[in-house]
Write a structure and sequence with these properties.
ten-stranded mixed β-sheet; 10 strands
């Protein structure tokens, strides 16, 4: 059997050291640094996420207990608690944003060949945000309301492979649509989001750029019916082409489809709106239903990784911890995507935590987790006493 390094080391190899070092030089992360390298800080923060460490003491103690196995990770020794805390507070968090973006490109490249969920060829992306509450007394920079603080994570998720494509961190007061206006999407993309992103000027900009979207209208939105189509498909009540009242005075007004569907399980109707005029009504309903993937992603990252409790209170430390959590989730999701075993994400994270410093082949383990690492033959059996 060939010799392998630890599972932790094999996961970290998804990030080339040359690319990481280029990002360090770009952001000048090690300017005036003494002792602790940015790579050692990164490994310590990944151990916090994948190893389930709850504090700086657990991070440094856990790495110190595995001192002999750190060389495979490119780390000579475990960092000191005060040194790691100082690095988290002062080293630019944008280093890890850059690492995240580069890792997305690597993972997306392998995900292109996966089977599509829908027949259309448009890339399907979900856009949403989640609020991460913090104590305003300790995180005074993260004001949300008078007595509460919060950090908001805005995310674009690729629904085909369940990999995050783009992420933005902001304070809790930043509106979702404010971040959405700053994002750019390729022509032909199918974007799905909830009614919190209703902004008719932004919708018009997406439509002019060749980006399709599926969303819901607010109850207060006024419109006029341009065309009534035949309702085709089970539970489809109405299929109409509409024009928003806010568009009536504009040259070349945007045409939208309004699709009303009966939900048997909720005994209620749900109305969808889209600028794609050709797809079947039931396909539009299925696309919006698939938006739930991003909600599951938020749930998984909050339950499995360390983003609800923090090992630092400064804005830089919090940003650093959340970006490394996103990198860790990207790594775990990539391993899950390539595995032939039917893993649930939570189970994979839990078992990785137990196997992190075990010396065995990563892909053999994720494909056959119940198989022992070494099969004993007759010559290796222990002798009777």
């Amino acid at each position: 059997m060939g010799r392998v390094c630890s599972i932790f080391s094999q996961i970290v190899k998804l990030i080339p050291r040359s690319g990481f070092q280029a990002a360090v030089e770009k952001h000048k992360s090690e300017k005036h640094a003494k002792g602790l390298s940015s790579w050692s800080q990164f490994i310590a923060l990944l151990f916090c996420q994948l190893g389930g460490a709850k504090s700086l003491r657990e991070i440094t103690g856990g790495l110190a207990a595995s001192e002999g196995k750190l060389r495979h990770l490119g780390v000579e020794r475990a960092p000191k608690r005060s040194t790691l805390a100082y690095a988290n507070e002062h080293r630019d968090w944008r280093l890890y944003e850059t690492v995240f973006s580069e890792l997305v490109e690597v993972c997306q490249g392998d995900a292109r060949y996966r089977k599509r969920k829908f027949r259309f060829k448009h890339p399907l992306l979900s856009l949403d945000s989640t609020v991460i509450p913090v104590a305003v007394e300790m995180f005074d920079w993260a004001q949300y309301v008078r007595t509460k603080g919060a950090v908001k994570l805005h995310l674009v998720l690729d629904n085909q492979c369940w990999l995050p494509q783009y992420a933005v961190l902001s304070d809790g007061k930043t509106a979702d649509i404010q971040v959405a206006r700053s994002l750019h999407f390729q022509p032909g993309t199918m974007l799905v989001f909830d009614r919190g992103y209703e902004d008719h000027k932004w919708w018009r900009k997406l439509d002019a750029g060749g980006v399709y979207f599926v969303s819901r209208l607010k109850d207060s939105t006024s419109y006029s019916i341009v065309e009534r189509r035949q309702a085709v498909g089970k539970n489809v009540i109405r299929d109409e082409v509409i024009q928003l009242t806010s568009e009536q005075r504009l040259a070349g007004p945007m045409r939208l489809r309004r699709i009303e569907v009966w939900l048997e399980d909720k005994q209620d109707t749900m109305v969808f709106v889209t600028n794609h005029l050709k797809l079947a009504a039931r396909t539009i309903a299925a696309v919006y239903r698939d938006r739930w993937q991003i909600e599951l992603f938020f749930k998984a990252i909050k339950q499995s990784l360390r983003i609800k409790t923090f090992i630092g209170t400064s804005e830089n430390a919090v940003q650093t911890q959340i970006w490394t959590a996103l990198i860790a989730m990207l790594m775990v999701r990539y391993v899950q995507m390539r595995s032939t075993w039917k893993w649930s994400l939570s189970n994979l994270v839990a078992l990785l935590r137990q196997q992190l410093f075990v010396y065995r082949d990563l892909w053999e383990w994720v494909n056959q987790p119940e198989r022992p690492p070494v099969e004993l033959d007759d010559g290796q059996m222990s002798l009777p006493l």
